[in-house]
Amino acid sequence: MRARAIAPPLRKRLVIASGLALCAIVLTAAGLVTRGNVPAGTPGGRRGAEAGIAAAIDSLCPLYSIDARLIRSWKATAAGEPTGRIEEKIPVDPGFRSLEFNHALAARIAPFGAFVVATERSKENSVTMHIVCGGTTIRSLWFVPDAAR
Questions:
Q1: Which residues lie closer than 8 Å to 1 by C-beta, 6 or more apart?
Q2: pLDDT tens digits, residue range 50-60?
Q3: Rounded to whole angstroms, what are the CA distances from 84 to 46, 50, 75, 115?
């Protein structure tokens, strides 16, 4: 018994699909290898990541006309216990471009194995960006438009 030959158009599609599947596997493997260069699970690794993330935020503030002296920070609590997360209320100009800030912040904190998740409150016209590192939210940036600016 002999197998039937595959038609040329179908063969071309199979080759393309196989190539795309191979590319997806390679990109996924590369992402797993490069993500999380800093072992955030260790205390020293987490402190190093937090310091790098804080420096990244501080370096972006002047670029987006954010006055660092007006930022209010506190440690978040849940049921009276500290959560290990820092929250910051950041007054910004009414024309603040949160999406651009989000992309710039994500690019700067990626080497620390962290990423940004943002939420928007349309009623209050505010945006909150949560920085997640090692599966835990370690910092929340609450951007509130300041009419006085």
A1: none
A2: 888 999 999 99
A3: 11, 11, 7, 17
The candidate with the shortest Cα–Cα distance to 113, out of 126, 94, 131, is 131
Global pTM reads 0.66
In 3D, which of 77, 63, 25, 64 has the Cα closest to residue 145?
64
Could you give the CA distance from residue 89 to residue 105 in angstroms, rounded to a whole number?
Answer: 16
Residues 6+ apart with CB under 8 A from 5: none
> Per residue in 31-44, pLDDT tens?
665 554 444 555 56
Q: Which residues contact 86 (CB under 8 A, 6 or more apart)?
A: 73, 74, 75, 76, 138, 139, 140
Decide: 109 and 52 in contact? Cβ < 8 Å: yes
